[in-house]
Amino acid sequence: MSERGVSLIAYREGVLVAAILSLMVLPVSSPSFAASTAEDHVQYMYSGNQETLADPMRPLVYYGEGSWIYVVDAGTGATLDAISVDGQAESLDLSRDSNSLYVALAQTNKIAVIDLLTRNVRREIPLNFTPLSVRAGRPDRLYVSNAPGEGEFGHAYVINESSGFVVRDLYISFAAALEVDPSASVLLTAWLFVSPGEITRYDITTDNVTQIGPSYYGPYYGRQSVDWVRNRMYVGSAIISLETMTVIEPIYLSSVLFSAAFASNGTRIYGIVGSFYGPGRSLWGRDSVTGWETTAPQADGTGWVVVSEDGANLIVGKPLQRVTRPITLTPSYPRPNAVLNATPGWVSARLDFGLPFKTLSNAVISLDGARLPLHVFVPEDLEGLLNSSLPDGKHTVDYALTFAEGESVGAAWEFWIYVNMTTPSVGALYPAQDSIEKAAVSYLQASINHGDPWQPIESVSMYLDGRSLETSFESPEVLRAALPVTLQDGDYQVWGEISWNGGVRSFYWRFSVRIEIPPLASFAVGTQALFVGDEITFDASSSSDLQGTIVVYRWDFGDGEQEQGRVVSHIFSKSGSFVVRLRVVDNRGLEGASAMEVTLEMRPPGPFPVWAVLLASMSMTAAVGFAISGVRNESERKSRLSAPPRSSGTAVGHGRVLFCIFCGAPTAHGNRYCFECGRPVWAAP
Questions:
Q1: CATH dotted code for 328-417
Q2: 268 near 329, Cβ under 8 Å?
Q3: Residue 683 pLDDT > 60
């Protein structure tokens, strides 16, 4: 098994559309008259164009997938039975008496005939070609198209239903889907996956098949549905007349159409639309009379749609499921409980016709009990027109709708009028309107005026330079919007909108950000070693100001002393740690500051000079001499005290020698500290 990509190129409304359809290649036996091989067969009908079929006699739907035929309840979508067939199911059709189901089988090249009463394969019709589309016609006649292989041409064959013999061969160039009218007198051949495509009518009242009138030649996407009652055909891009083979109504779809079906009333078309390569397929419906369209999302992979014969059910998907949607009527204007400051010109409600579509037969719209003239602008918008002013106060709208199918739906709501009311509004709080912010902005704030009478705000949108912001209420009167980034220098615009029950109002303001950068204070200390008593230099020349000029330098040395100037000196009188602070001021009055901790130590002792050692030795010698002399003097003094006193005399004192016990330097008499090292001196006794 292998895969082949078939390129479909179409031109619609001046737009070139290219879609690559990935189609599965299936092995089949080679017919005796064709050049195809097992690798040449392309499964054309994989999209669900003819694999689904509604039973006109029973509330059933049949669909083929792989080698199975499923019987589905048209009312519930439940699978009732599964019938195995020998081959790949390509298309299905009912016999004229609706008791048999014909299944075109690829791979095995035959038609399976299923008895719908017993739900078993009754017999098989062998073919010498690979069947694609099968349709029942006159008694004992089937019409079958082939699935041409590489380099082959398309054919439509008239087949003997009993033997499978080819009675007539119609050359049609390409693979085609076939359709036969209820009277079995007209055959349609429609090219598949070729655009522009060709659709041709043939007279099949006899085996001498002849073409009827001109062919339709134009945009075609291989998805058709025929309305034999009105002689129309939907071809994926238009509805064409089968009498004139011309376009009655163009229909434009924004995505790929996978299958299509006319409803029994002939005005409604249903289909599956979506993408070849991804999820998101939807059931699409359109009323060709009113122009109303609708979609309903479906499960991934959905490719089939069929309308039950009674028109009451849509059967969609793989596996099949019943799709319904109830009729709904939603108030549009004025909104329920809205407060208006003037009389509205109309009231309106939006109608969803449901799925399948229902037919509106009567609509009554009243205001405060008085009936209003009905105006239908588009099918789903039902308006009641007002021709006079309404007084202040509460007013009631009432809708009553009935449908041809017997269903009815209604809606009622109230609104208020206050002629002198004031509507809600929004004002700038932060940043203010036209303000120039000197610091970065990280959020926005706005004030809310709820109007008179007070109106609750239903929704708020806010944008900064076109970018949507998340908003929240700090309070009923204050709105806040967080910013994804902090705003730097620049000019900014804020735009937004608030809505309340009955109105919408926009707001706008602008502001600028010009961030002021203060001066930068910085300084250096003149030396690394800091000692008590040294003169230390502090230099603030490294301070800077990007937007101004520094005019003041203030110093605080942490010891109670202060100074001014760019470069200053200071002497610390004691050891310890001190925090030196610098504060600078520029010509704009902005300040900057810096601080540094410095530690002051006492200067360590140095080596003793030779002269100091000699002097200290001399001092010690003198001191010892004086000490001995003092002892002698003391003895003499005691002797004198014991002797009789003299009549008169003068005592002679002896001076003392002072020197530093740390560095040995001499010092003057009476000094307690050494002039050399600053430490206490030692005095000889």
A1: 2.60.40.1220
A2: no
A3: no
The torsion angles phi and psi of 273, rounded to 5 degrees, stand at: -120, 155
HSE value, Cβ hemisphere, 13 Å, CA-based, for 468: 3
Pairing of strands 232-234, 238-241: antiparallel
**Are the CB atoms for 446 and 431 separated by under 8 Å?**
no
Q: Which amino acid would we find at residue 464?
A: L
Structure tokens, 679: 């430490």
Q: Which CATH architecture has domain 425-513?
A: Sandwich (2.60)
Best CA proximity match to 608, nearest among 677, 540, 514, 561: 677
Residue 477: CA atoms inside 13 Å, Cβ hemisphere, count? 4
Homologous superfamily, domain 22-323: YVTN repeat-like/Quinoprotein amine dehydrogenase (2.130.10.10)
**pLDDT tens-digit series, residues 250-269:** 887 777 777 778 776 667 88
How far is Cα 232 from Cα 243, in angstroms, rounded to an integer?
Answer: 8
Instruction: Please state, in angstroms and as integers, the Cα–Cα distance from residue 316 to each residue in 222, 281, 285, 526, 611, following that order.
Output: 19, 11, 12, 90, 120
Mean pLDDT for 556-580 is 93
| H or E element, residue 611 | helix 610-642
- Which residues pair with residue 239 across a beta bridge? 234, 249
**Nearest partner of 27 among 149, 145, 134, 151, judged by Cα:** 149
Whole-angstrom distance, CA of residue 209 vs CA of residue 469: 70
Do the Cβ atoms of 204 and 182 come closer than 8 Å? no
Residue 117 to residue 95: CA distance in whole angstroms: 13
pTM value surpassing 0.90? no
**Domain coordinates of the chain in residue numbers?**
22-323, 328-417, 425-513, 524-600, 610-633+655-685
Collect all residues with Cβ–Cβ distance below 8 Å to 403 and sequence separation of at least 6.
327, 358, 359, 360, 361, 409
What average pLDDT does range 168-189 have in this prediction?
91
Q: CB burial class (10 A; 0-12, 13-18, 19+) of residue 63?
A: buried
Q: How far is CA 646 from CA 305, 380, 628, 633, 634, in A?
A: 155, 149, 26, 17, 17
What confidence category does residue 299 fall into, taking pLDDT thresholds of 50, 70 and 90?
low
Burial call 625-662: b when 16+ CB within 10 Å, e when fewer = ebeeeeeeeeeeeeeeeeeeeeeeeeeeeeeebbbbeb
Q: For residue 448, give the H/E element and its range.
A: strand 441-449
Question: In CATH, what is the architecture of 524-600?
Answer: Sandwich (2.60)
Tell whether the model's pLDDT for residue 599 goes beyond 70: yes
Residue 648 has pLDDT above 70, yes or no: no
Is 629 in a helix, a strand, or coil? helix
Q: Assign 678 to helix, strand or coil.
A: coil
CA nearest to 596, candidates 530, 517, 519: 530
Among candidates 110, 107, 138, which has minimal Cα distance to 42?
107
The DSSP bridge pattern shows strands 408-417 and 339-340 to be parallel
Q: Among all chains, which residue has been given the structure tokens 């405060």? A: 368
Question: Based on the number of CB atoms within 10 Å of its own CB, is 446 exposed (0-12), middle (13-18) or buried (19 or more)?
Answer: buried
The reply to whether 524-600 shares the fold of 425-513 is: yes
For tokens 């017993």, name the residue: 118
pLDDT higher than 90, residue 293: no
Bridge partners, 567 (sequence order):
539
d(CA 680, CA 685) in angstroms, rounded, equals 16
**Residue 607 contacts by C-beta under 8 Å, 6 or more apart in sequence?**
none
Instruction: Read off the pLDDT of residues 49-77 as tens digits, 9 standing for 90 and up.
Output: 588 888 888 888 898 888 999 998 887 77
Read off the pLDDT of each residue in 367-396 and give the average, rounded to a whole number: 91
Alpha-carbon span 113 to 517, nearest angstrom: 90
